[in-house]
Amino acid sequence: APWALTRVKQTPLQGTHGGVKGRTKNVRGAFKVQGSSVARLKGKRLVLVDDVWTTGATVNACGHTLLAAGAAQVAAVTFARVVRPAQLDL
After folding, report:
1. Does residue 66 carry a pLDDT above 90?
2. Which of 6, 8, 62, 79 is the most buried (most CB within 10 A)?
3. Given a cut of 60, is residue 17 above it in pLDDT?
4. How many angstroms separate the CA atoms of 40 and 69, rounded?
5. The predicted structure's pLDDT at residue 36
6. 75 CB contacts (<8 Å, ≥6 apart)?
């Protein structure tokens, strides 16, 4: 349902906001489910698709928006995850 979410607030690139707190604040209120889409999402199980998971702030903002609009469940799939060198166990 690519029509389900609309970005209603332009935000600076997430990379300019450092950690989880800054990125979460940056996307707070940036997404909305518009009008007739609310009825179409009610009770549905949805999957968000995102290209890169860094802190999860964007996926969380989108997921919470969809749940607040009445979706029954929201899962997420990403194609890549950012891993910092300190997180690697090599």
Report:
1. yes
2. 62
3. no
4. 10
5. 81
6. 45, 46, 47, 48
Q: What does residue 60 show for φ and ψ, rounded to 5 degrees?
A: -65, -45
> What percent of the chain is modeled with pLDDT above 90?
32
Q: How large is the average pLDDT for residues 55-63?
A: 88
Residues constituting the chain:
90
Q: Which residue has the tokens 């928006």?
A: 65
Mean pLDDT throughout 38-67?
Answer: 90
> What DSSP character marks residue 19?
S
| Sign of CA pseudo-dihedral 32, 66, 38, 1 | positive
Residue with tokens 């450092």: 18
Q: How far apart are CA 76 and CA 78, in angstroms?
A: 7
DSSP run (H or E) holding 74:
strand 73-81
Structure tokens at 36: 């007739």
- Got the DSSP string for 23-69? HHHHHTT-EEE-TTHHHHHTT-EEEEEEEEESSSHHHHHHHHHHHHT
